[in-house]
Amino acid sequence: MLRLGVPSKGRLMEDTFAWFARRGITLGRAGGTREYAGRVEGADGLTLVLLSAAEVPRELAAGRIDLGVTGSDLLRETMAGWRSDVTEVTPLGFGHADLILAVPACWRDVEHLDDFADVTRDFRATHGRRLRIATKYHRLVRAFLAAEGVADYQLVDSKGATEGTVANGTAEAIADITSSGETLRANHLKVLPDALIHASQATLFANRARLSDPKLGALVERLA
After folding, report:
1. Secondary structure of residue 167 in the 3-state scheme
2. Which segments constitute the ATP phosphoribosyltransferase catalytic domain (predicted)?
């Protein structure tokens, strides 16, 4: 029996159900709207598992599900060396959001990533500490900034509304997911145009080790 993990609520679940329906596979809850057991029609031997989007990478890596739908940002952030355990089957074309670096709008001399790198060096020389960047995406942000040669910073973990950390004085810049940018502008932040860390969208992934199963291989070929 193959197991497919899908986000258990919200627009992401609805769009995922619609995507599979266009390919002849009907997914749904087994009972009412609060039921977490799933049902599948149109694909023999496939079981639906309803999870949070954040749980899908863990369950894929552990082999407890064979296929899973989650944001590409969540999977890359959660799993170091994810390509050894998981393969990307296909992007689904919805759930788009960009992980970006944003700074206070009043920083008029900071319009690009090179300017930001200069500010981080000046900040450390002036204040005797590293400039703080609030984020929930430590692995992705650290890898991006290392590749761009930015080193004089400190990542601080954001548990709530990341956009408010600059106004609250707990960070000088942020790295966060945004769709329209409206919340950033409302908090007097601006996106650096060359600091797109990751363009995320909902993506179907498969457990790499399980791809040797002919049934999973056939299903992946059908969906991809």
Report:
1. helix
2. 53-223
**What letter does residue 74 receive in the DSSP assignment?**
H
Encoding tokens for residue 153?
A: 């910073």
Q: Structurally, what CATH architecture does the domain formed by 97-200 represent?
A: 3-Layer(aba) Sandwich (3.40)
Q: What is the pTM (predicted TM-score) of this model?
A: 0.89
Task: Tell me which fold the domain 2-96+201-223 belongs to.
Answer: D-Maltodextrin-Binding Protein; domain 2 (3.40.190)
Predicted confidence (pLDDT) per residue in 186-217, tens digit: 999 999 999 999 999 999 999 999 999 999 99
Residues whose CB falls within 8 Å of the CB of residue 72, separated by 6 or more in sequence, listed in order: 88, 91, 198, 200, 201, 202, 203
Q: Where in the chain is the domain with CATH 3.40.190.10?
A: 2-96+201-223, 97-200
